[in-house]
Design brief:
Elements (H helix, E strand, L loop, with lengths): L10 E3 L6 E3 L3 E3 L6 E3 L4 E3 L7 E3 L4 E3 L6 E3 L3 E2 L9 E2 L22 E3 L6 E3 L4 E2 L9 E2 L4 E2 L9 E2 L4 E2 L8 E2 L1
Antiparallel strand pairs: 1-2, 3-4, 5-6, 7-8, 9-10, 11-12, 13-14, 15-16, 17-18
């Protein structure tokens, strides 16, 4: 009597068909011998041990958990071996594992604090330059009542405002 044992999903039989090996990026659970995807900040090596290795600081596992890559908001400069660096001031990178950061947001926005995208300038402020690194307060006598403004409006005659206002008030 010959019986064939099938391997669980995300695994394959060993060379001598005596046990199962998890696919790369997966780890085998000792109790039920099933394979599951390595955790978010790790990657799995191909081999019989099925161990998930933690990614080093500043990196995350790829979607397939085959390797680690730089997180959004960082990049790997050309010529440097896997050393992630934060995007420079005024730049951002929304995607992981990139070789450069993007250099401009649209007018009315600035790079987010975590440098993973662009944030709208809040009401009472504006930015006109795509390379702006901070929003500018509207001057006294002006206002901006919408986020992501590229300019401020002048208060009507008989009204006034403080710097950074979202509306004008009657005198």
């Amino acid at each position: 009597n010959v019986t064939c044992n099938t391997c669980p999903p995300f695994s394959y039989p060993s060379r001598n068909y005596t046990y199962c090996i998890c696919e790369r990026g997966f780890v085998m659970h000792d109790v039920d011998k099933t394979c599951s995807l390595c955790p978010y900040n790790s990657y799995g090596k191909l081999g019989e041990d099925g161990i998930c290795e933690l990614c080093e600081a500043g990196k995350q596992g790829t979607i397939d958990r085959f390797r680690c890559e730089c997180r959004p908001g960082t990049f790997i400069p050309q010529g440097l071996d896997d050393e992630c660096q934060d995007c420079p001031e005024g730049q951002f990178q929304p995607l992981p594992g990139q070789g450069a950061c993007l250099s401009s947001c649209t007018p009315g926005t600035i790079p987010s604090i975590d440098k993973t995208g662009c944030d709208d300038c809040p009401v009472g402020t504006f930015s006109v330059n795509a390379q702006a690194t901070s929003c500018i307060d509207c001057e006294a006598g002006e206002f901006s009542d919408t986020p992501a403004s590229i300019s401020c409006e002048t208060c009507l005659k008989g009204t006034w405002s403080h710097a950074g206002s979202k509306e004008c008030q009657l005198c």
